[in-house]
Amino acid sequence: MMYTVLARKYRSQTFADVIGQDPIAQTLRNAIKTNRVAHAYLFTGTRGVGKTTVARILAKALNCLSAKEPTAEPCLKCESCLAVNVGDDIDVIEIDGASNNGVEEVRRLRENAIYRPARARFKIYIIDEVHMLSTSAFNALLKILEEPPGHVKFIFATTEPNKVIATIQSRCQRFDFANINPAVIAKQLRKILGEEKIEFENDLVITLARMANGSMRDALSLLDRLISIGEQPLKLELLEQFLGCPDSEKLGELIAKIADKDAPGTLAALDNLISGGLAEVQIVDALTDYMRDMMVVKSTGADSELLMLTEAQRQKITALAEGFDVAGLIYSITALEKIRWQVKNTENPRALLEALLLRFALAEHFLNVDQLLSSSLPKASPTPKPKTDVKKNAALKIESPAPVKQPRDLSLRDSGAELDRIWSQLLQVITAELGGGTAGPLRMARPVSFEADTLTLAFAPSAKMSKNICESNGRLEQIQSCLSAHFGRPVTVKLLVEDSDAPAAEAKKPAVKSPAQKRNELMSDPAVKTLLTGLGATITNIEEQ
């Protein structure tokens, strides 16, 4: 007996069976019930979301021979319904627009359309990939679309509606088919596996649904490949072994190395993935998805319904997300998407990907132009960081410099030499423990006092953005915890903005610069050059804060 692939075997047969396109199915059913069926429809959407399936269901509904008139519930048993199911009905003509895209084919269609259907109510033309028709072919369709015979219906399907000329679209009722939700795909996969009596692990179904990218047909094709392996129960490891799905453990290791700012480890983890047979572009796609999930975790929490993950994946991604902030993840996702085309088409994709991942590993997060203007962070040469064997939640623990020995009744004020010395040493401690992304803005502050275990720091008015950075994303709490651990007792950090009228602030007030000078100074800043090059951006306006 000939095997029928799952995508055909479990193809929807009625409007009630349609998966993930309920609004469209309901609209068409109501149009049939109220006798408001249009003469031409345009179905748009990505591959495998049900465009041709719904077109066939509509054709069966209009031509079902068991009913005296069009019905929203075709019988699926009459000669017309059975013939439409296999694409062999004499009155429902399916045309491939990619291979029949010339004006001559459309002229023949027009000549045949004037004849009444052989046995059904309507002669229905289903043209798939209609965007492939030539301009001349489109123009040949216009007249019959504008004034079609009463017995003719047209259903056009396309994945690229922007290529369908406006005069055609204006003569059709357009329905945009949405990508199918992964949860809906997963539910359908479980149902099919149950009917096929195949054992499976739930983790595999969830991952398979995500891999389908909103396409039910793609999901069923992937499932067919897994079933053909012949192993039961179907496990998540089979995706990695036979379908080229990235190893989640190796991918997590790469993310952890980036979070740890471990450049050698990042390159080694990337090599481990490539050695396993993954192409560079597959790694880019996998990293984009992984970082998107971490961004959602950081923004909405680990229990968000926006995450389609197994419980183990949810816990791991939540732990790894602790090593990143939202700004860094946003930058990483956009950079990965931008470089994807280059990685796919260059002759040396590995070097390009290695360079990008090292950029992630060696940068805390990218700053926008406004931040660079208001907070010119000092450029310190990177200091090698000792490796550690203990990693928790992808956060790197580094041995701090020797503690600054201070008595419990420490009381220093007014930026004396001793207070400046202590602050310089504390900056080294913060840099080693929390990284340059936190220590950098602190370098814009000057110590005012350190008494009663309260360290008071003042920022100039022009460095107000640096103060805001120190207070955002829980950084101030991290700084206080770091200093408290360093001194062995609770330490509070108080941040102030200096009064612009104060003599100290007046003495430090820079000379007024013209807009042209400010722009030239900004454009020559290496950090700005790197940012503009990486984003392919230009400066359109400069605002001071």
Walk me through what this model shows:
The protein has helices spanning 6-9, 22-33, 51-63, 79-85, 103-113, 135-146, 166-169, 182-195, 202-211, 216-229, 236-242, 248-259, 263-275, 280-300, 311-321, 326-345, 349-361, 369-374, 417-434, 436-442, 464-471, 475-487, 503-508, 515-523, 526-535, and strands at 40-44, 92-96, 123-128, 152-158, 173-176, 391-392, 395-396, 411-413, 445-451, 454-459, 492-497. It has 545 residues and is of the alpha/beta class. It folds into 4 domains: 6-176, Rossmann fold, CATH 3.40.50; 182-191 and 198-242, Helicase, Ruva Protein, domain 3 (Orthogonal Bundle), CATH 1.10.8; 248-361, Zinc Finger, Delta Prime, domain 3 (Up-down Bundle), CATH 1.20.272.10; 401-508, GMP Synthetase, Chain A, domain 3. The strands form 3 sheets. The chain has a 5-stranded parallel beta sheet with strand order 2-3-4-1-5, covered by helices on one side. Strands 8-9-10-11 form a 4-stranded mixed beta sheet. The chain has a two-stranded antiparallel ribbon with strand order 6-7. Strand 6 and strand 7 form a beta hairpin. Helix 14 (280-300) packs antiparallel against helix 16 (326-345) and helix 19 packs antiparallel against helix 20 (436-442). The protein is elongated and about 100 Å long.
